[in-house]
Amino acid sequence: MTAITIRPLVEVQPLPTIDTTRLFMLSDEVWSPIDKFMANTNAINVILAGATANGDPTPELCSIVVLGYLSAVETYFRTLLSRLAHIDDLTTEALGQKQLLFSVAMKRPRESLAEALYEDSFASVKELKARLAEIGMKQLPGEIEAALGTYESICHVRHCCVHRFGYLGNKNAHDLGMSKHHHLIGGIFSPSSDDLANIADALQVFVKTCNNHVFRFVTDRTVTAQEDPSHEFEWSWRWFWEYRKDKKRFKTYYDLFALVRGHPSSVSLKEAYSHFKDVNAAKVAAMAARRATAMQPGE
């Protein structure tokens, strides 16, 4: 009896071998998180500009671009918080319970561990707030709170691009506002070039705002923390409030948060220190007065 050959409904080629060790390239480049964020965003903009030189972007390209923009944001936060733990005792204490892979930590220099060790997501306002709360920012400044709604909307758009190939689902329509989006359920993400530019600009404003406030938060809290005996570690240094003496210590914070390669770039190290000193002057004077009072002999 002759065997019957049945052709498959869809022709299938042999499965190619994927060697994942060939897919990544190590880099010793160490930029500040905000510098790297701007560079990553600009790289996506260059790709977008090249692909749309003769027309509007396709829905598929739009989805990829938004994924890239949000990936740059998440990388910024992971890098910032990971490196902050290396220079700031209070962040180290706060993140002390996070599990890290020892095998990875032993093989990579600490400056490049951010992506490897900090795996938490930042792709929603809830997750972002949780990560910032972990380092002590439980009450966010008004500027950040005001921008969270826009960030959340972009995150919902990203969800459509990641999980539905750009199509708007019922849940995301609900999250974005069902009254305004119910008729768009099943529609594909098709922004104009101007819409994508607005998304990129909004994310840059959001990240820069967060960068400024986290910098202010972590530097300002070192002032009062030096007077707080409740920490589980021994505080080994103190601000002298003289630029020459404080420069090296303050520079570790400045280098982590400063925008050097972008335009306009951050203020100089000396100017940033002067502002830090000025905004904490009243606090320092009050602490000095309390110490002086405490040292006076009792009546």
Task: Give a short overview.
With 299 residues, the chain is mainly α. It has 12 helices and no strands. Helix 2 (59-87) runs parallel beside helix 9 (193-225).
Structure in words:
- By secondary structure, the chain is mainly α.
- It is about 60% helix and about 0% strand.
- It has helices spanning about 35-50, 60-85, 90-95, 100-105, 115, 125-135, 140-165, 170-180, 195-225, 245-255, 270-280, 280-295.
- Helix 1 packs antiparallel against helix 2, helix 1 (about 35-50) packs antiparallel against helix 9 and helix 9 (about 195-225) packs antiparallel against helix 10.
Compile the SSE list and pairings.
Layout: H1 33-51, H2 59-87, H3 89-94, H4 102-107, H5 114-117, H6 125-134, H7 142-163, H8 170-181, H9 193-225, H10 243-257, H11 269-279, H12 281-295
The helical percent reads 55-70%
Main beta-sheet annotation:
none
Structural class: mainly alpha
DSSP E strands, number: 0
Tell me the β content: under 5%
Distance between the termini: 115 Å
As a whole number of angstroms, the C-alpha radius of gyration is: 25 Å
Instruction: Give average pLDDT, whole number.
Output: 87
What structural keywords apply?
mainly alpha; 12 helices; 299 residues; 0% strand
